[in-house]
Each structure stands twice: as C-alpha cells, then as structure tokens.
C-alpha cells in the first residue's frame, strides 16, 4: 500500500512537472514560429541574434528540468506495469524528447544562420563604409576640377583628374567585391534584400556616374591643355621668327651704311619671305585665341591670352614693315651702286679701247703730211683721254659723296677701282703725250731738213747761175788772184 501511494505521488509529481515543461515548450515553439525572417540589414540582424541568444539561454536554463523529467519518466516506465498508463507515459516522453530536440535544433540552426548572415552583413557593411565615403570625397574633389585658361591651374587640375580616374579604376575591384558581398548577403538572408539591392545599385550608379564625369572632365581638361599648348607653341614660333628678323635688323642698324650689300640684301629678303610665310600663322593665332576665349568657362581670365596674341600681331606687323622698308631702301641703294658699277666697268672698257687704239697707231711717219696727220690723231686721242679722265674724276667725287652717305664695302671697292682707273688713265696720257712729243720732234726735224734742203737747192741754183756769168779763168796772176777772191766771197757757195 505504501509502495502504491509512493508510486502514485511520484507519478502525480512527474505529471505536474511534465505539464509545466510541455506548456513552456509549447510557448517557446509558438514564439519560435513567430520569429521574423533573417534580415539582410546589419542592425536588425544584430537584434535578431540577440533575441535568439536570449531564447537559447532560456532553453539552456530549462535543460536541467528537461533532463530531470526525462530521467524521472524513464524511471517511472520501469516501475509502472505494462498497460495503458505505461504506454501513455512512454508516448509523452517520446513527444517531449521530440519537441525538445526540435526546438533545440531549430534554435541552434537559426543561431548558426544568424551568425553566418551577420558575418556576411558585416563584411558587406565594411566594404560600403570603405567605398561610400570615398565616393562622396571624390564628388567633392571633382567640383574643384575646373577648366581654366590658366596653364598652371589647368595642369594641376588635369594631374588631379588623371590621378582620380586612376583611383576609380583601382576602386573598381573593391566595387566588384562589394557587389559579390551584397549578392552573398542577399542569398543568405530572408528579408530586406531589396534594401541591399537598392543600396548596391545606388553605389554602382554613383561609381559609374563618377567614372563618366571624371572621363568627361579629364577629356575637357586635356582638350584645353592641348589647345593652350598649341597656342603657346604657335605664339613662341611667331615670337622666335619675329625676334630673328628684329635681330637681323639690329645688326644692319649697327652696321649702318656698311650693311648695304647684295649679301645682306639676300638675308633681308630671306627674312621678308619668312615673315610672309608667317603671316597665315599670325592670322591663325588671332582666330585660335578668339575661339579659346569663346569656349572658356564663364569667369575665365582671358586677358593674358588676348594680350599675347595682340602683342604677337603688333610686333609682327611692325617688323614686317621695317623689313619691307629696309629691303626697298637697300634695293634702291644697291641699284644705284649697280648702275655706278656699270659706269666704272664702262670706263674700264673705254680705257682698254683707248689703250688698244694707242697701241694700234702706226710707226712714226717720215714725211710732214704723215706726221701732221699722226699728230692730229694723237691730239684727238688726248681729248678722248681727257674726257675719260674728267668722267673718272667726276665719278671719284660722286663715289666719295656716296661713301660719306653709304659707306658700303662695294663702294670702297669701286673707289679703289676708280683710283686704279685714274692711274691707268694717267699712264695712258703720259704715253700719248710721249708719242705726241716724239711726233712733234720728228716733224720739227723733217721740216728743218726740208728747209735746209731748199736752201741748198737755192744756193746750188744761184751758184750755177753765177758760174755761168763768171769770166774765163785768166792767164795772168793778178787776174787769177782777183777771180779767186771773188769766188771765195760768192754767197752761193756758203753753206
């Protein structure tokens, strides 16, 4: 009886504990059934994990009661005789174990899934927190990239733009990692996936937008840099050639009148041709500058470019005018010198002709008529030489005046030629005068000879006439002496 009472009491106590645990299990199962789907959001995941940990903690706290009840039930099964009661107790234990194990398994499974999803959410969030601030910083920096006409600022902006574009390309790999992390998180979660998808799409869109804007900005900066470079190259090319022409003009100015020469004229003409070929570039620079100013962003300071283009055009026109004037003046001077040189050549030719003429004069004549003709020829020849000498002297005077005004090397050469010409003319004059003197001397001798010959002939005639008038030679001494004395004093016989 006592044993039966004890068994009954034990069975009642077990049933009470069993009912309490089963009620608690039912509540937990009901609570577990109401668990929210695993979120993709980090904050909700952390909250869900904490709730599940609390749930598992409660489960662990009741594990002792569960084990006592199971042990007590199994003990009761041994003491209860076979029958309906034992079968009922056995079913209750099986059901209790099943519910407990299922609850424990689901709780552990949820815990594992929550932790796994939390890790994936944290990894995704790390990538977001790494990439998004950089995107915002990149947007802020892009606003400072401005297309300007200032070469220094433009170069700085272009370098920064290229560096940012390179950084964007590097960040592409991080974006791919973020996208992969987002996809993994979405596949692991049960809710809030759209928020992750939207956030991921926004980040990708921002990245694409930054890339496109940076590429466009870099292209604009490169284009303006190239245009400014082209402007500077064109400006420097014009400046260099204009400076070359100016330097040549300065050299000519320093040489003064000595700069006037055919060689220097060729140099000046070469500068003239170079400047003529440069004129289209000057016009292009002007139009190019106007295009730059029109395409420049609002507020850009284009004064420096406009000033450079204006200075280049003004200096080009001034130097071109000076070169053209210099060429014209030098051409006129050299034309005058050329004409003067031709005159000198002509006088040399005249002198050579006169020299040949003098050499071609025949030998000194032997009769008065020939000598008179030769003397007349020499006198005419001397008049020609005198006229040539006057031309030479006039040319020398003109050359000295031109030297005072011009002072060119060509004129110095012509001056020396005129001096040589004058000396040759003097020598030819001396030779002509020597021939004239020779002819006149010979004529004088011929005339004297003929005068003496005439006198001799006259005396001979007179002697012959006197001889005819003379008496016959006497026979007496006195008569002969008288005749001899008369003969000695006869004029016809005096030579």
From TrEMBL:
<dbReference type="GO" id="GO:0003779">
    <property type="term" value="F:actin binding"/>
</dbReference>
<feature type="coiled-coil region">
    <location>
        <begin position="385"/>
        <end position="438"/>
    </location>
</feature>
<keyword id="KW-0009">Actin-binding</keyword>
<protein>
    <submittedName>
        <fullName>Microtubule-actin cross-linking factor 1</fullName>
    </submittedName>
</protein>
<keyword id="KW-0677">Repeat</keyword>
<dbReference type="InterPro" id="IPR002017">
    <property type="entry name" value="Spectrin_repeat"/>
</dbReference>
<feature type="coiled-coil region">
    <location>
        <begin position="207"/>
        <end position="248"/>
    </location>
</feature>
<dbReference type="Pfam" id="PF00435">
    <property type="entry name" value="Spectrin"/>
</dbReference>
<keyword id="KW-0175">Coiled coil</keyword>
<dbReference type="InterPro" id="IPR018159">
    <property type="entry name" value="Spectrin/alpha-actinin"/>
</dbReference>
């Amino acid at each position: 009886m006592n044993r039966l009472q004890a068994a009954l009491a034990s069975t009642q106590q077990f049933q009470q504990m069993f009912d309490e645990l089963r009620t608690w299990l039912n509540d937990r199962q009901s609570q577990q059934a109401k668990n929210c789907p695993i979120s993709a959001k980090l904050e909700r995941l952390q909250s869900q994990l904490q709730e599940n940990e609390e749930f598992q903690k409660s489960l662990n706290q009741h594990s002792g009661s569960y084990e006592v009840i199971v042990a007590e039930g199994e003990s009761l099964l041994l003491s209860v005789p076979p029958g309906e009661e034992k079968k009922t107790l056995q079913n209750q234990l099986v059901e209790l174990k099943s519910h407990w194990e299922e609850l424990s398994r689901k709780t552990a499974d949820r815990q594992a899934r929550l932790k796994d999803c939390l890790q994936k959410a944290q990894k995704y969030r790390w990538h977001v927190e790494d990439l998004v601030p950089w995107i915002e910083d990149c947007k802020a920096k892009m606003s400072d990239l401005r297309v300007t006409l200032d070469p220094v600022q433009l170069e700085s902006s272009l370098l920064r733009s290229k560096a940012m574009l390179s950084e964007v390309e590097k960040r592409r790999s991080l974006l791919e990692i973020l996208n992969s992390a987002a996809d993994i998180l979405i596949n692991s979660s049960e809710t809030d996936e759209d928020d992750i998808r939207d956030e991921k799409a926004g980040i990708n869109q921002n990245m694409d937008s930054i890339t496109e804007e940076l590429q466009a900005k870099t292209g604009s900066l490169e284009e303006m840099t190239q245009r400014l470079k082209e402007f500077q190259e064109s400006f420097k090319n014009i400046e260099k050639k204009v400076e070359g022409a100016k330097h040549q003009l300065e050299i000519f100015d320093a040489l003064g009148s000595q700069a006037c020469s055919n060689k220097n004229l060729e140099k000046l003409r070469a500068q003239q041709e170079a400047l003529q070929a440069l004129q289209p570039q000057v016009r292009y620079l002007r139009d190019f500058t106007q295009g730059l100013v029109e395409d420049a962003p609002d507020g850009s300071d284009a004064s420096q470019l406009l000033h450079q283009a204006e200075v280049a055009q003004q200096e080009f026109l001034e130097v071109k005018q000076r070169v053209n004037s210099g060429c014209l003046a030098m051409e006129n001077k050299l034309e005058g010198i050329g004409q003067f040189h031709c005159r000198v050549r002509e006088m040399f030719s005249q002198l050579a002709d006169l020299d040949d003429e003098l050499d071609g004069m025949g030998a000194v004549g032997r009769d008065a008529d020939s000598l008179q003709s030769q003397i007349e020829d020499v006198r005419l020849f001397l008049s020609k030489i005198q006229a040539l000498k006057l031309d030479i002297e006039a040319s020398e005077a003109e050359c000295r005046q031109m030297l005072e005004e011009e002072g060119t090397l060509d004129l110095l050469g012509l001056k020396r030629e005129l001096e040589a010409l004058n000396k040759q003319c003097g020598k030819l004059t001396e030779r002509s005068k020597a021939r004239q003197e020779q002819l006149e001397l010979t004529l004088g001798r011929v005339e004297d000879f003929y005068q003496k010959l005439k006198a001799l002939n006259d005396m001979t005639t007179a002697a012959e006439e006197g001889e005819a008038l003379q008496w016959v030679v006497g026979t007496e001494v006195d008569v002969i002496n008288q005749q001899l004395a008369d003969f000695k004093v006869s004029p016809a016989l005096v030579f």
